Amino acid sequence: MKEWFSKDKLKKAPVMLAAVITMGICVALLKMTSFGPDPCSTMNYGVASLLGLPFGVYQMSLNIVVFIIVFFIDKTQLGLGSFGNMILVGYSADFTTWFMRRFFGITSFEGLGVRVAVMLAALIVFVFAAAIYMNSGLGTAPYDAVSYLIHQRLFVNKGSKVPFRAVRIAYDAAAMLIGLATGGGVGIVTIIMIPALGSAVDYVGKLLAGKEKEHSAAPAFMHFMGA
Asked: Residue 85 and residue 16: Cα distance in Å, rounded?
């Protein structure tokens, strides 16, 4: 665990934290458009509602449990970024929802034009924030780590050639179905994100890596796990 808190990684922490906070803001805005957030958030919104818990509280609680499981199976998947994601995305989303209701009286966006505009803006920003977070090298979210472990333990270690992308799509689809069953607000964006989010984040990550190379000798970002 010492490497999680190395000087180099601590320097990257502020950017990572800004990225996960931004992701949480976008999750809330996507939910308010009724086009739906990402599959994981949709699932957590639904289950949190059934349990009568705030989204942030439930998301952090679930992630703590998953974090512990992943830690004992393969701690190399985890790091400072895992903590940032498991704590800040949910609470940032809850704060955004409160802020929009308290100061603008908005609980959901009205009018197709407004909803589409907010959805497109939030989705683009979400993808960029996710690319920065996932490519920071500070560890993945517990939710993402589980999909990797499933692929490794059930397929790769048994000699199967099933690609990770197929496992990830099935994994996110299962999360979406749970969200659908629990009233988590599944929408067209949720469905599109299942096959497209990984590729979109990976593409943006490569663009950011290219710009980074133009200005410094920093190493290229690692690829997004869902690609």
From this structure: 9
Determine the Cα–Cα distance for residues 67 and 73; give it in Å rounded to an integer: 10
Cβ atoms < 10 Å from Cβ of 5: 11
Q: CA angle at residue 165 from 157 to 68, to 5 degrees?
A: 60
Q: Could you read off the pLDDT of 175-215 as tens digits, one per residue? A: 999 999 999 999 999 999 999 988 888 888 788 777 554 44
Question: What tokens does 66 get?
Answer: 């998953």
Nearest to 133 by CA among 165, 92, 99: 92
Element of type H or E holding 25: helix 7-33
Q: Would you state the pLDDT for residue 224? A: 40
Burial class (CB in 10 A: 0-12, 13-18, 19+), 158: exposed
**In Å, how far are 151, 168, 219, 225 from 159, measured between CA atoms?**
11, 18, 32, 20
Distance CA 165, CA 40 (A): 16
Which amino acid type is present at position 202?
Answer: D
Residues of the chain with pLDDT under 50: 213-227
| DSSP tag of 37 | -
The closest of 162, 159, 225 to 197, measured between CA atoms, is: 225
